[in-house]
Amino acid sequence: MKILDRYILRNFLTSAVTWFVVFMLMRMVADLFINMDEFAKLDMRFGELVGYVATYYSYQSLAYFTELGGVIIVASAAFTLAMMNHTNELTAMLASGVSLQRVIVPIILCSVLLSG
Question: What's the angle, vertex CA 40, arms to CA 50 and CA 19, rounded to 5?
Fold first, then answer.
């Protein structure tokens, strides 16, 4: 694996983790508001309730990833390429003779591994 591939892959995975956290938090906040009455019915102290809710959503995160995995991957790929274009890294790669298809190979391979 070339240094350029590792660099692109690191940027993509950083973006994927960021988008994963953002989408999971949005999903969890929406679900928390929907299920607020269910959690309020539980006879627990505040600390126990926070632990229960955290455990509940940690188990739900895998199910949420299966729902949002494709969106996260597409958003990460687009964000990675947009940021590389914004900072002129993509321009430098293309000017040095690296084709655009070669630049996106690590992103596509990692996307296939993450989605499949």
Answer: 50
Q: What is the pLDDT of residues 29-55, one digit of tens each?
A: 999 999 888 888 888 898 898 899 889
pTM beyond 0.85: the answer is no
- Tell me which residue range forms the domain holding 31: 3-115
Q: How many domains does the chain have?
A: 1
The two structure tokens encoding residue 6: 């590792």
**Any idea what DSSP says for residue 27?**
H
- One-letter amino acid of 28: M
Tokens linked to 14:
């950083």
- Intra-chain end-to-end CA distance of the chain, in Å: 21
> Cβ contacts of residue 90 below 8 Å, gap of 6+?
81, 84, 103
Q: Residue 64 corresponds to which tokens in the numbers above?
A: 């949420």
